[in-house]
Design goal:
By secondary structure, the protein is of the alpha/beta class. Helix content is 48%, strand content 13%. The protein contains 25 helices and 16 strands. The longest helix is centred in the first third of the chain and has 30 residues, at 38-67. The structure holds phosphoenolpyruvate and magnesium ion. Phosphoenolpyruvate (PEP) binds at residues 189, 296, 298, 337, 439, 460-463, 510-511.
Length: 594
């Protein structure tokens, strides 16, 4: 038995068997075959190609079932590439001309393709390099019959163990077989972690040496609440954790029964609890968990689950699906927030030295107006559904705004797109609300100026903490320094709330910290009345709101304001929540595992 400590990123406990995803493709050595074996080598390649195409087809179907047509397209595109003679013809030619093994021929030919694409000045080619690498790896896997990297071989109750996982890898998991994951790298607010919560998969990240300690096939417990991974647990640990899983299951049933109960504090303040989503299919979960709408739809997943840029129709279909799924509840669509950790640098047109401070979010939108206008057109077209089908309102917001000019430019583009649509006779909501994320200190400090222009604010603590404290949100080595309870962050939030109140515009918080009971109490005390969190966190959060009074929350905020360090604030909040909610924020005070 061994306990490995990491960072708890997605709540829940799971017990399963380890499947290790190897970090990079295995090294392929050049091997020459005898002349009489060349036809067999060609046949081996053909069979591997057929199997890989079938595997991709199955992935596409599964992705479509679980995550929708958008997610399926990436696999369909890969299958198409493997069916293309231009791609695979040179592999067969090399096997014949140099009498080399099929593995080596794939490695060489696909490697050459990737190099040539990488060197092209046009981004349409450079963005394909990852796809080519991925396909080469898949073919070599098939040829070697080795599936270490392929989660398609996962059995039921599989726990994925990897050095790191990208959001698109996590999005492709078959949830009927993969029940959790743990990685060596990553932070609590990385997008893979956010996705784990959206997929409701218990997860722990930042577990050093994990891939060395957790052997393929080993029994493992992933404790996504305490941030630990137990390899080859003892009988007692298994018993205790099985009890915990059962208790959680019945608690969930109980909570879902009261999901529709409103979040009103004991002294009568109404709090709106809405959801953060990444895929339109999640709108169903939003309703099931009692969410009152979507406060943040991260549309960048439209790009992350495909190899090419989404078309206007791709955008429109997703937004319409989401809005219809919400059955009359509001939908806040955030425009493209690519860059930083979400858009890997290998995939980027021009790799950046410091992507978190580089061409990301609204900067990217404003530098590629064609792409941006396509998205805005689709959002505006979807906004017409509100009146036409009696659905909830659509709102739009811009990410990572640092200067008023960026917001004004974005809003001007919306007006301009509206004029185009009006000329074409295409309907839209002319009164669509346009807001911004407040997730950099400059925006928070200038909230009063911004408040004159925007229809609403949404505070994104994930980035606000990163940029205020200079701590990379995805880096496990500095995770101990990443604390939303830092007094500097709290002062910025207070500024934003004050500015919003003065102008009577709505302000919400959509960072991950909004679902932390202690922090939610503080946010209420600071004046925030809308909290936007992962759908599955909604019932617990509503319960917390019902269990406190605004008077108490304000007292907490006032006290916190006198404290000088994040440790003091965190300790005070922990102590306070214990007093305010003696049963524990989630209604279960302790247990055999505490
Ligand atoms: C945030 O930064 O707090 C936020 C909600 O946006 P994202 O996590 O997508 O960067
Ligand atoms: Mg952000």
């Amino acid at each position: 038995m061994e306990i490995l400590r990491g960072i708890a990123v997605s709540s829940g406990v799971t017990i399963g068997r380890v499947l290790v995803m190897a970090e990079d493709s295995r090294r392929v050595r050049r091997r020459v075959v005898r002349a009489e074996h060349v036809p067999a080598e060609l046949e081996r390649f053909e069979q591997a190609r057929t199997r890989a195409i079938a595997e991709l087809g199955a992935f596409a179907k599964q992705a479509e079932r679980e995550l929708g047509v958008e997610a399926a397209k990436i696999f369909q595109f890969h299958a198409g590439m493997l069916g293309d003679e231009h791609m695979v013809g040179p592999v067969k030619a090399l096997i014949e001309s140099e009498r080399v093994s099929a593995e080596w021929a794939v490695h060489r030919v696909f490697g050459d393709w990737a190099d040539r694409f990488r060197a092209m000045p046009d981004s349409a080619f450079t963005t394909k390099v990852n796809d080519i690498d991925d396909l080469a790896r898949r073919l070599v896997d098939q040829l070697q019959g080795e599936r270490r990297q392929s989660v398609s071989s996962a059995r039921h109750d599989t726990v994925i163990v990897a050095r790191d996982l990208t959001p698109s890898q996590a999005a492709a998991f078959d949830r009927s077989r993969i029940i959790g994951f743990a990685t060596e790298l990553g932070g609590r607010t990385s997008h893979t972690a956010i996705l784990a919560r959206a997929l409701d998969l218990p997860a722990v990240v930042g577990c050093s040496d994990l891939t060395l300690r957790a052997a393929e096939g080993a029994m493992v417990i992933v404790d996504g609440d305490r941030g630990q991974v137990i390899v080859e647990p003892t009988e007692e640990q298994l018993l205790a954790y099985r009890g915990e899983i059962e208790a959680r299951r019945s608690r969930r049933v109980r909570l879902s029964e009261s999901a529709d109960k409103p979040a009103i504090t004991s002294d009568g303040a109404e709090v709106s609890v809405v959801a953060n989503i990444e895929f339109p299919e999640e709108s169903q979960a939003v309703l099931e968990f009692g969410g009152e709408g979507v406060g943040l739809y991260r549309t960048e997943f439209l790009w992350l689950t495909r190899s090419s840029e989404p078309s206007e129709e791709d955008h429109y279909e997703s937004y319409a699906k989401c809005l219809r799924g919400l059955k009359g509840l509001p939908l806040t669509i955030r425009t493209v927030d690519l860059g930083s950790d979400k858009y890997t640098q290998e995939r980027a047109e021009t790799p950046e030295r410091n992507p978190a401070l580089g061409m990301r979010s609204i900067r990217m939108g404003l530098s590629d107006l064609g792409m941006f206008r396509t998205q805005l057109r689709a959002i505006l077209r979807a906004s017409a559904l509100t009146a036409r089908e009696s659905l909830g309102p659509v709102r739009v917001m811009f990410p990572l705004v640092t200067n008023p000019s960026e917001f004004l430019h974005g809003r001007y583009l919306i007006k301009d797109v509206m004029e185009d649509l009006a000329e074409e006779g295409v309907p839209f909501d002319p009164n669509i609300r346009v807001g911004m994320m407040v997730e950099v200190p400059s925006a928070a400090l200038m909230a009063r100026s911004f408040a004159k222009e925007v229809d609403f604010f949404s505070i994104g603590t994930n980035d606000l903490v990163q940029y205020t404290l200079a701590v990379d949100r995805t880096n496990e080595r500095v995770a101990h320094l990443y604390n939303p309870a830092h007094p500097a962050v709290l002062r910025l939030i207070r500024e934003v709330v004050k500015a919003a109140r003065a102008k009577k515009i709505p302000v919400s918080c959509c960072g991950e910290s909004a679902s932390d009971p202690e922090y939610a109490v503080l946010l209420l005390g600071l004046g925030v009345r809308t909290l936007s969190v992962t759908a599955s966190a909604i019932p617990d959060l509503k319960r917390v709101v019902r269990g406190v009074s605004i008077g108490e929350c304000e007292r907490v905020a006032r006290k916190v304001y006198t404290l000088d360090s994040d440790q003091q604030v965190s300790a005070f909040l922990r102590d306070r929540i214990r007093k305010l909610m003696p049963d524990g924020p989630d209604g279960r005070s302790g247990g055999p595992l505490e």
